[in-house]
Amino acid sequence: MRDALSVVADIGGTNTRVALARGPQVLTDTIRRYRNAEHPGIAPVLEDFLSRHDARPEAACVDMAGPVKDGVGTLTNLDWRVDATALQQATGAGVVAVLNDLQAQGHAVAHIAGDALVPVLPGAAAAPDAARLVVNVGTGLNAVPVFRQAGLTLVPAAEAGHLTLQALNDEEMRLLKWMQARHGNTGIEEILSGRGLERLYAWACEDEGAGRPLEAAAIMAAYTAGEARAARVVRIFVRYLARYTSDLALITLPFGGIYLVGGVARHLGPHLLDAGFAEAFADKGRFADFMGQFPVHLVTDDYAGLRGCAGHIAERLPG
């Protein structure tokens, strides 16, 4: 049964991608994209997709950008309510599941091809069932551990982007005070995200007494062009990202690897090592050598959410 036909969907803020899957394998030639604004909810999207393929899936799994509890979720930036019961009615599937989008990324890591994983730090070889850690840096920030036991994958939900922003030196203290003056008790997501990169640059302009704020794309263009202020901002961003990732690694012990996902992570991926990621990741005092055990990868798979849905729902089916 775990090779049964399922329908999977990855709901983003603007578009939804839907596909058929056979067991944990997404049938990539079936992937279809729908514009969310043209549909009142996920149910008619799935109904249209299944009618086009004349498919009767035994299972269905959807991931969405928003909190999920007891099979029900509401999208953060879209007036859609996703309900497991409604999904069952729309698809006719006997087994259904609703995941948060980062949970889907966690379920995906065991199913991503090697050419969609860019190595950042080598780490050490680990047992297949070792814990993993997924860190998402995009519109927001979050991280989830991935555990394997008795052939099943567990990805507990988290809101780890709201850990308190801290400062370890004079430069960071100036940044922290600037952020607190504008945002109060500041979570680290306020600097480790797309808008966070922009806030860092705006702070750097004030700290240096020159320049004007830029949007994230312009900051990266300035960095590529060699602008000193952009280089400073990227180094600070990467230092905080490495510190955040290594702190969570000491909590979850992801000997199976750390996976960086999200649009901002992808854009910064080619620059992580040049901007000091390895040094900041290992900056744990007497635990510096210990940190070398954790491999770090950058995920570049556009269909990771769909793969995670397929992998999760396949495990839910009888063996």
From TrEMBL:
Sequence similarity: Belongs to the bacterial glucokinase family.
PANTHER family: GLUCOKINASE
Gene Ontology molecular-function annotations: ATP binding; D-glucose binding; glucokinase activity
Pfam families named among the record's database cross-references: Glucokinase
Coiled-coil annotated spans: none
Domain of life: Bacteria
The keyword Transport appears for this protein: no
GO process terms (BP): glycolytic process
Organism, scientific name: Ponticoccus litoralis
Annotated Gene Ontology cellular component terms: cytosol
Name of this chain's protein: ROK family protein
Keyword Kinase carried by entry: yes
Keywords: Kinase, Transferase
